[in-house]
Amino acid sequence: MPSTQSGTKTASSSGEDTLTEFVQLLLNGVSAGCIYGLIALGFVLIYKATEMVNFAQGDLLMLGAFIAFTLIESFGFNYWLAFVGAVLFMAVFGYLLDTFILRQVIGQPQFAVVMLTIGLGFIFRAGASMVWGTETKAFDTPFTDGVTRLGGFVIADVNLSIVAGTAILCAVLYGFFRYTRIGIAMQAASQNQLAAYYMGIPVKMIFSLIWAISAGVAAVAGILLAPVSLIDVTIGLLGLKAFSAAVLGGFGSIPGAVIGGLLIGVIEQFSGVYLAEGFKDVAAYVVILAVLFLRPQGLFGNIGRKRV
Known about the structure:
Elements: H1 2-50, H2 57-73, H3 79-100, H4 110-132, E1 147-150, E2 153-156, H5 157-179, H6 181-191, H7 193-198, H8 203-229, H9 238-249, H10 254-274, H11 279-294
Antiparallel strand pairs: 1-2
Helix pairs in contact: 1-5, 1-8, 1-9, 1-10, 2-3, 2-4, 2-8, 3-8, 5-6, 5-8, 6-8, 9-10, 9-11, 10-11
């Protein structure tokens, strides 16, 4: 009898450990997926309006994180002021980037646009390495080293801040696009540029504003990510995994971008534990290949062409 009870307790303990590990991986995956979702959101916003694919989106994340670092470490801003300042700076940067550079290639073949944004990414990384160096940087946040305990689970406050920040930003963007005149004008321009122009909507300015929003969203992702992975010139390469998230969700779907990011994050976490070593690093790319083969329009995308 004692041995039977001991075996029962051991099995129960093993089951609880498995459940704890599962939930912990799920929470970590959601946190990482929120970052992918925010970067993917930038991809989708720009593509939906201009049919451009911005492969420099991840590098805008990197620049936003470095700007926040500079405001905190060099200018003495507190975290929240630096957060707002970096987002506004990157929004202006995105607006000017479209106005003076990207607008010049509208109407050119997609290959030219892709090569331009890839080239811009290299320029951003090279510029960042000249200004901030190649060493990793970090700054303190109100969430650094904090943890929250929920039952038997331990959640880092930085992960909670990522999830909360993503939820708040998505709610703000939803309200902006649904209830403001500029947001409605952006939707109109993304659906039919010519009709929007004839209705008096300044389409070129609207596109620049969309680039501004996309760059601001990237900055938010970079600042939220900074306490987790630190800041260096290579963190922008997360944009490649975020591209997978955008494809998975459907490249024209804003909710799909966030959901795709969450799925990629969760898949990465579980594949890193339950699949062969090293598979975690390629999981996102395996997913994108599978989606392109089985459902090219993504989970929430529609087959069809936009009228211009």
